[in-house]
Amino acid sequence: MMDFFQATFIPGVMMGLALLSTAYLYRVLCGPTVFDRMLGLNGISTKVILLLLVIGTANDRVDMFVDIALGYALLNLVGSLAIAKYLEHQGDAINAMD
Amino acid sequence: MKPNYYTLLALKTGLLTLIWCALSSPDIFSESGLWDVVMGAVAAFTVAWLNTERKGVYGAIRVGQLLGYCLWLAGSIFRSGCHLSLLILNPRLPINPKMIRHRCELSNDSSAVLLANSITLTPGTITVELDSHDLIVHTIDDSSAADVTDRHIERKIDGLFSTKGMS
Amino acid sequence: MQWIDSVKDPAAMALILVGLFFLVVAAIGVLRLPDIYTRCHAVSLADSLGAFFLLAGLSLHASTNMVLVKILAVLVLLYLLNPAIAHLTVRAAHRSGLKPWSREDT
Known about the structure:
The complex is a heterotrimer of chains A (98), B (167) and C (106). Chain A has 98 residues and is an all-alpha fold. Chain A has one domain (4-93). Helices cover 86% and strands 0% of the residues of chain A. Chain B is mainly alpha-helical and 167 residues long. In chain B, strands 1-3-2 form a three-stranded antiparallel β-sheet, covered by helices on one side. By secondary structure, chain C is mainly alpha-helical. Chain C has one domain (2-95). Helices cover 83% and strands 0% of the residues of chain C. Chain C is built from three helices and no strands. Chain C has helices at residues 2-32, 36-61, 65-95. Chains in contact: A-C, B-C. Chains B and C meet through α1, α3, α4 and β2 of B and α1, α2 and α3 of C.
């Protein structure tokens, strides 16, 4: 018999995090500039890192999911770094609006 | 604490080995677990050796004060985070965003980087450009702008590193 | 030591709820605020306070010390990397000449 924390509360937190990332998804899909899309992607990545740890708590295997979360956080930095370096040299804001 | 080349190397190796042990959680009482720790220490030493300059000039760091500064920064993050949440939840959205050019009065690069990082970590202020000692900071309202312009973060950082640059 | 076990789960739930509150506020801010620079403030709120309280709650519920250390490692990594990402995004926007929204314009 599982207790209230793991049976009810943690799945609720998981659903809440998934719902929250739709707000960032709106920014990715409809953001006026390309930088808004980047920001939305970064926000979703943070939510996914938190979600991985919550899933680990739900399954009592946090030690396994933490490693995936660490890798995801590092990958997020590298991706953002590459995109930001690429966009920096565009020069004008007209190119950024699309 | 004023590290030279060898203490810095030992410090980096120890820290990386500790992180290795925390992530792989080996069973040190069995033979294979002991082997794990040894291999981790060798890898940590290699990384530390490749990333420490023999001829570098190392300034002193005040470790105790640095920890105290981190605690103070956590409190300050909490305060300005609550302030920013009230701003966002307010129906009239009383924000007044501004770009501020701020000239910091710090003697070395490590302190300037720590200042820029602290400003970005605090909700409500973001460092946009850091050009040796000129910062361009974007602030969301007047009270978070005052956090930057009244220089109390700088006064706290000023004593942490000595005058020599770390690099 | 029986009372610690009985108080641990409610305390963890309270911390996680506080973290979720900050995350919700940040999501509202991302939808409401007028331009990229101000939205970045909202995302940094989610990254610093929301993640801190949520991970504090999870580590309170953690069964062994090793799990606690690993969750703290994720927290430290988030605190080191997220300011860098926010700074990179805003700097790219600034260098490509995006004008910040201000109250006088509208």
